[in-house]
Amino acid sequence: MNTCPKRMINGPCGGYRGTICEDDRLKCVWILAYYSAMERGSLGKMFQLKLDPGFRVSRYRPVVKRSRGVVDRILSGRTAIIYEYTPKPYASPENVVRELGEIVNIYHGVDFVDNPGGYPIPSSLPYAALVKNIYRSLHVSIQITARNKDRNQVVSDVLAASLAGLDAIVATTGDLQAGERGVWDLDASRIIYLARLVLDLGIDHMGRRVGIGGEGVIIAASINANAEPLEPEILKIRVKMDAGAELFITQPVFDVNRFRFYQKLLGEKLGNSAEIPTMVGIIPITSRKVLQFFETKVGIKIPEKISMEIKRDRIDRDALIKANLDTIEKIVKEINHSSYYISAFGDNRLGVEIAKIVRGVIG
Fold it and tell me: What pTM did the predictor assign?
C-alpha cells in the first residue's frame, strides 16, 4: 500500500476511524481494501504476514514459547499490572530510580516508552537496564517504535535489550508526527518478526550473525479494541502472532460493552481468546489535549463523567482526578480481568493511585 503514509504492508495501523486515515486529510487505503476484500471473500489472503524484499530470511516461522514471566501470570489468571513510564527530558539515572520508588512497590512491571508522540527524549534503554539491575524480580520492558527507525537500529535495540536482561519488548508502529513525514522502514509486524530472528536464531534480516540466539525476551504488541471497523484489528492479531508476538496490550478501555464485543469477535475469528495473553489498557484523561487526542485521533468515546469535568471553564483538578478514579474502578469491576497496563502520562503519583484502585478490585 504505497499511499499509506506509514508504509504499512501488514494491514492498517490502529489509528483509522472508519475509512479515515490517522492523517485526517487522507482515506485509509487499508480499510478501503478491507471492504473490497470482504466483497471478494479474500480477507484471509489479505491478512497474512508479509515481509518486504529486504528480509533475505523470510521462511522462519516463530513458535509459541513456554509461558514465562508476566505471560505465565496472565495465562494462569494471576494479577499482573504494568506501569508505562516516561523518563523526563534530562532526567538523571538517580532521579529515574527515585521516581520509581513507589511504583515498584505496587506494580509487577515497568515499561519504558520510546519517544512518545515523536518528541525526542533520551533513549530509555540505559534507564531500563539500570532499573532491571536494581530490581531483579521486576518485569522491565522497553518499547520499540517503527517511527524514525530503520531495521539496523531495531536490531541494535533488540540486542541491547537482551544483553541488559530486560524481560520484554513492546513493538509498535507509532503515531504520525504533525508537520513531519517521518521515516517508516518497518511496521509493528515486521519489527516483531525481526526481533524474533535476532532473539531466537541470533541473526538479522540479512541472515548475518548478530547474537547467540535462544534468548527468552517476550515480544508484546498493541491492539486497539476501540477500532471501527474492528475486524481488521482482530485479524492483525493473527498476523502479529504469526510474526512471533506472545503478549498483547490494548489501547485504553472506557466502554465495557465495547470490550466485551471485542472479546466476542476475537473468539469468533481466532478461537479461544483466553489463550491469547492480553493486558487491558487504562489511561486517565487529565487535560483537554488528551481528551481531544483520544476522541479525534483514536476514536475513543470518553465517559461523560470525565469529559464534563474537562469541559468546564475552569478545571477542578481534584474533581477531575476523582472522576477518573471512579470511572477506572467501575470499569475494572465490570470487566473482571486480571491484568492491566496503566499509563498516567508521567504523573507517577496518579499512577500509584490508579494501581491502588485496580489492586483493591482484583487483589
Answer: 0.95
